[in-house]
Amino acid sequence: MIRFENVCKSYGSFQVLKNCSADIGRGEVVVVCGPSGSGKSTLIKCVNALEGFDSGQIFVDGTPVRDPATSLPRLRARAGMVFQGFELFHHMTVLENIMLAQRVVLDRSAEDARARSLKLLKRVGLAHHAMKYPVNLSGGQQQRVAIARALSMDPVVMLFDEPTSALDPEMVAEVLAVMTELAQAGMTMMCVTHEMAFARQVATRILFVDQGEIIDDMPSADFFSGQCSDRARNFLERIL
Amino acid sequence: MQIWNWHGFFMYLGSGFIFRGALVTLMLTVFATCAGFVLGTVVAVMKRSRHKGLSLPARFYIWLFRGTPLLVQLIIIYTGLPKFGIRLDVTTAALIGLSLNEAAYLAEIIRAGLDAVSPGQIAAARALGLEEGQIARYITFPQALRIIVPPLGNSVNGLLKTTSITSVISMEELLRRAQLLVQEHFMVLELFTVTAIYYLAMTSAWDMIQRRLENYVNRPYQRTATPVLLEPEANIAVTS
Ligand SMILES: Nc1ncnc2c1ncn2[C@@H]1O[C@H](COP(=O)(O)OP(=O)(O)OP(=O)(O)O)[C@@H](O)[C@H]1O
Ligand SMILES: [Mg+2]
Q1: pLDDT band at B1 (very low <50, low <70, confident <90, very high)
Q2: By CB distance 3.0 to 4.6 Å, which of A34, A175, B28, B214 could disulfide with B163?
Q3: Which domain range does residue B186 map to?
Q4: Domains parsed from chain A with CATH numbers
Q5: Where is the ABC transmembrane type-1 domain (chain B) (predicted)?
Q6: Which class for B211: exposed (0-12), middle (13-18), buried (19 or more C-beta within 10 A)?
């Protein structure tokens, strides 16, 4: 579903991504972890071309990302993304947030978009909050709305960049619960996260990134049973 | 000669000649604000452009019109352009001068508003598949408006009074008409007190409008203590 082929990217002389290759199959839940500044955000943002890269290729459901013939808006509409900072549009209600792209990108009718939005809100447990503005929601609630908003495009993959890092501990669980439900429903997911319990229980595979390189790429059971690299073991010891 | 002539004061207060002068002032202000806002938006967008061919002319325009007095601009427009075969009546010259001048100031206000929209909001819109034009229309401009409205209100208040400068090209607005009447009875204080009252009435009316505008653009950002009422459809979806 997502295939990285020798992806390289530099900021000036600083190489952020070094020959990254990986293949994420349909329905897989891949957790990307690694030290701060290792390039995790950059890697995941290359998938929907929020970041460009210098060489190599990424295929999303067969569509090459780094290709002038590819319509980036159309590619992005098929890859939902959830950000660390939620990024709900603050001038719109929850419902308007979820309806916007359905209306203007997918040309859905107002009634259709509205019905789908309310259904998604129910799925993330926030049906009562449709008419609120984001400022009146807690962080955990905002992030669940952001997930609903991404799902409203019926994406083929979901990308998460540290979705729980900006949340108070008691709100982390509610967001992880939504993500777990999504994974069980068969969604292809790529998640940058430090939530190792989630990685252990939900992820099918772990990518360990350090200094712009994918050091480990293995089933999560193997990763956590000690078959990972020394660098990953070091990293795990530091964060657990 | 009396110190204060009440009869004269009320005569001028009820004068149709003065009232129509105030209407001209109002017309000049409304027109220059609207035209200045449209042109100012174009100039602001150009100035933010990465292309020098767009940003340089915008910078030149702002530099020119903010760097010279309106008085000088009006005289050049009114007396200079006819030498190139462009004949302008007084009203057209006044409208053009005020609009061009206001556009330069509003361009800077609008640019600051557009700059204030956080990159995260734009990335989120992009990730949903919105095209750049759609992002500008649905995200950047609406969010910038909240930043723009307070200084815009200030600028309109200033403009209401600045329109009096067009009297130098004999535009018959409020101040010019007061000056004309002074020649008749020399009741300077009464006449200019009436003029001041007219300006105060107009600036106060604008204050009220501006407050409403500010409330309107700030509404999404206000934390509400009371729960937001749900629309009936949302209620149905909740219980189904
Ligand atoms: N615009 C930029 N210009 C220069 N360097 C950058 C830029 N953006 C990111 N970097 C650098 O690239 C490296 C990777 O950044 P990235 O945000 O991908 O790391 P990360 O693994 O997501 O880290 P974190 O866990 O802190 O989020 C960092 O060292 C960062 O300083
Ligand atoms: Mg990051």
Answers
A1: low
A2: B28
A3: 7-222
A4: 2-239 (3.40.50.300)
A5: 22-210
A6: exposed
